[in-house]
Design brief:
Length: about 300
């Protein structure tokens, strides 16, 4: 029994004395300590942050820093053998970089999103040709609840789309709600020639004030902030009605500001109000429409008969 114990102690002592095993032991313990400290740091830093998006971003940043520290710790532990593997690491790194270039670009895109304020969770964006609301931002992909496609208007169609973060470097990123959560929208109303066009213009303006008046006041405050932040003109936010006359009718264009999520609903309310007002003044104002008259095709002569008579 004593011989067995002595042999075990000798074996354990040999393992401990082996420099390679000792290094691996220190490496494992070091990685565990780094992981533990990263978890403690994540909990401490995010404890007083109320914004879920910022909590998510800080957690990812701390994780990224911890991985970097772990990599540096690993290279420090085996720096005496790195010289022999420099060429191999160079070739392997080039191959990995080529094979994972899209992944690397997506990670770089995530870093840009975290620091550049392109968009955040809840924003409505158009990214990589896909329009929708951002419901998640990962290290590699942004998750969108898609709008449009076979569904008309800015309404959900039910599809969840994941777009690579690398698209922030490849294509423009359209944000519908970040700094100015309102959109300009417009539509045309054709009025018959001979109608009281001044009354028609006044009716359209009244409908705009009734339906989008609240949006206009809120948009004014938001636009003032935009003017102070960016070098842009102090644009007209109030509803605007313009007109042109052509051969068919008098065409009015109604332009107004609306909430980016209620564009279609606001347009419906405006049309309802306008139609009601025109119906109440049907003797003075009438909607125009294009009328097409189909006529019969004239009979086609029998060319064979004509040819025979000529002969």
């Amino acid at each position: 029994m004593n011989d067995i114990v002595k042999d075990s102690e000798t074996l354990i002592g040999g393992w401990i004395a082996d420099p390679t095993i000792a290094k691996f032991t220190v490496l494992i313990l070091g990685l565990l300590v780094i992981r533990f400290l990263a978890g403690v740091l994540q909990s401490t830093v995010t404890r007083n942050i109320e914004n879920p998006q910022r909590v998510h971003t800080v957690r990812h940043l701390v994780s990224g820093v911890s991985y970097l520290i772990a990599f540096l710790f690993l290279t420090t532990m085996f720096k005496d053998r790195l010289g022999e593997l420099t060429v191999a690491f160079g070739v392997a790194s080039a191959g990995i970089a080529f094979a994972l270039q899209e992944v690397i670009a997506s990670v770089a895109g995530w870093v840009a999103l975290s620091l550049g304020n392109f968009y955040s969770t809840g924003d409505r964006v158009k990214l990589g040709g896909i329009k929708g609301d951002v419901i998640g931002i990962g290290v590699l992909r942004t998750t969108l609840m898609e709008c449009g496609d076979w569904v008309r208007g800015d309404l959900y169609n039910g599809r969840i789309v994941r777009v690579a973060n690398s698209f922030v470097f490849k294509e423009p990123v359209f944000n519908y709600s970040s700094d100015f959560p309102f959109l300009w929208d417009e539509f045309t109303v054709p009025i018959k020639h001979g109608s009281d066009w001044k009354l028609a213009e006044r009716l359209l303006q009244e409908s705009c004030r009734e339906i989008v008046g609240d949006y206009t006041e809120k948009a004014k405050e938001q636009w003032k902030t935009m003017v102070r932040t960016y070098q842009i003109e102090d644009a007209m936010v109030e509803p605007m009605v313009t007109m042109i006359a052509n051969d068919n009718w008098i065409e009015f264009t109604v332009r107004y500001v609306t909430d980016y999520k209620r564009r279609r609903a606001t347009q419906t309310q405006l049309f309802q109000s306008i139609l009601e007002k025109i119906d109440d003044n049907a003797d003075k104002v009438g909607l125009a429409s294009a009328t097409f008259q189909l006529v019969e095709t004239p009979p086609i002569m029998n060319f064979h008969m004509v040819d025979s008579k000529t002969r």
